[in-house]
Specification:
Largest sheet: 4 strands, mixed
CATH superfamily of the largest domain: Fido-like domain
Structural class: alpha+beta
Distance between the termini: 67 Å
CATH class of the largest domain: Mainly Alpha
CATH topology of the largest domain: Fic-like fold
Number of domains: 3
CATH architecture of the largest domain: Orthogonal Bundle
């Protein structure tokens, strides 16, 4: 028996949608088989008994809803190619069927068109998403289809997050317990000093990711903003007025904007030949109001979802919508802190230095961004106008990609990054401060020098991994070689203990 395509893969081939990314591809063959591709997507072969009874579009849509990953973007493209009467007839043949009801509900939800079908009279209410397979949100009952809409978003903006094995293992970990463990290991004053330093480290790292060196005033403004994370109602934070104030506070005054952009934007760079490289084409400006409204509702609709997932879908959702010319990345990282604080992962006054971790592992951060932007680059078609502006030529074909992103990989990335930040970056800072105090006390017994001089000695020692650099010794002519040797010995005893 020849292997045949089924479900999403069959539909993509039938409608010639070759540039749509599918995370689960199904085949009908002689025996069951599962293969995992390098990108984490799955190729699965089912036995003959799973084959759709008829080789029609609607039969394969039902197969897709049963066995493939739910891809709202792809399903939206399919539904706009389906004959409405054919779909109506299909549902009327099985009006109380679980998958025909899901099909009808999703068709009306995605297309905003109502089918000429009376409300379903019987049958129990069923969940739209399987909570074992997807991160779900607050339920909204739909009496017309007898469906519990448990999507994490709404029509305007609705990410999908699949419960992959990696994500399930990560969200099962207790972030709060990790933080409490550090608090138990270090004195309160050490923790407080570390927090004060990490606010500034986080701020500088967030700017440095954008290759910016901010003025002291801009650093202070961003630190003050971080201290406000999680303190205001989310709708006050995500409103256009509030986000515009935030953008104005963190960017160079020349690039402050009066509100969300009213022009087509993109993320790119100019190569050494003067040619423009387009890394990410942002949503067209006429979608912004709808997308941002959906993002504002997303926070409430996703109540009950794992906090790290909520932080990921809000923060990455914002940066992919890209409502400003400049400052989107810094606001995106601020929103991570806001959501973690809002959901009780990080208490007020404590910042998890996620930007510092991102900066040290830029390839992983870039991959999280590119896993969303690269598939789009294969689909979006655009022109460059005479004035140099970019125009999307197939907006109808890509708008569903902006509305319904799969943010599974971004959720996995953020969860890993947060745990690594706590276990490595935050631990190292606490460890250093405790050893710093011990070292300072011992060195004061050795040499009674001014505090600033002593701090500089420790800084140079630490930067050079416990060996005092010869080029710095001329700044401390009063210290003998024997004393320098003793300083190095004390450092090693304390930091290597």
């Amino acid at each position: 028996m020849a292997i045949r395509k089924a479900g999403s893969l069959w539909l993509a081939s039938h409608f010639k949608l070759s540039n749509v990314q599918l995370t689960h591809r199904s085949y009908i063959g002689t025996r069951d088989k599962i293969e995992v591709a390098r990108d984490g997507s799955i190729d699965q072969t089912y036995g003959p008994k799973y084959a759709p009874k008829r080789d029609g579009v609607l039969d394969h849509i039902e197969f897709m809803l049963k066995y493939d990953d739910l891809n709202l973007d792809f399903l939206c493209l399919i539904f706009f190619r389906v004959e409405e009467q054919e779909l109506t007839n299909y549902i009327l043949e099985r009006p109380t069927g679980r998958y025909s009801r899901r099909m009808g509900y999703l068709y009306e939800w995605l297309t905003q068109r109502e089918l000429k079908i009376e409300a379903i009279a019987g049958g129990n209410y069923i969940d739209l998403l399987d909570p074992e397979r997807y991160v779900t949100g607050m339920q909204i009952r739909n009496s017309r289809w007898r469906i519990n809409d448990n999507l994490i978003g709404v029509y305007e903006y609705c990410p999908i997050v699949r419960k992959t094995q990696a994500l399930k293992e990560l969200v099962a970990k207790d972030v709060t317990k990790e933080l409490e463990g550090l608090k138990d290991d270090y004195p309160y004053e050490i923790f407080q000093r570390a927090s004060q330093y990490l606010y500034r480290k986080e701020t500088r790292s967030s700017f440095e990711i954008e290759s910016e060196k901010p003025s002291l005033d801009r650093v202070d403004r961003f630190v003050r903003l971080l201290h406000q994370a999680g303190k205001q109602p989310f709708l006050d934070i995500i409103s256009e007025k509030a986000l515009t104030s935030l953008q104005n506070a963190i960017v160079d005054a020349r690039y402050a904007q009066p509100g969300f952009r009213d022009f087509q934007n993109y993320v790119g760079q100019t190569n050494y030949r003067g040619e423009e490289m387009y890394h990410y084409v942002c949503p067209p400006p006429d979608l912004l109001s709808s997308l941002m409204n959906g993002l504002s509702i997303l926070e409430e609709k996703s109540t009950g979802a794992p906090p790290i997932v909520r932080a990921a879908i809000i923060a990455f959702g914002f940066v992919f919508i890209h409502p400003f010319l400049d400052g989107n990345g810094r606001i995106h990282r601020f929103l991570i802190h806001d959501m973690l604080t809002r959901d009780g992962i990080a208490e007020q006054g404590l910042v998890i230095p996620i930007s510092a971790h991102m900066l040290q592992h830029m390839s992983e951060y870039d991959m999280a961004l590119e896993s969303y932007s690269k598939p789009l680059s294969q689909r979006v078609k655009f022109s460059i106008l005479e004035n140099g502006e970019l125009r999307i030529d197939n907006s109808d074909e890509v708008c569903s990609y902006y509305r319904y992103p799969d943010l599974t990989s971004q959720s996995v990335y953020l969860a890993k990054a947060i745990f690594s930040t706590i276990q490595e970056d935050l631990f190292e800072e606490l460890y250093f401060l405790q050893r710093y105090d011990e070292l300072k006390k011992e060195l004061q017994h050795l040499i009674d020098m001014p505090d600033k001089q002593l701090s500089n000695v420790i800084t140079y020692l630490h930067q050079n991994k416990g060996i005092f650099p010869n080029r710095r010794k001329k700044q401390f002519e009063e210290i003998t070689e024997e004393e320098f040797a003793a300083v190095e010995r004390i450092y090693k005893e304390i930091f290597n203990s």
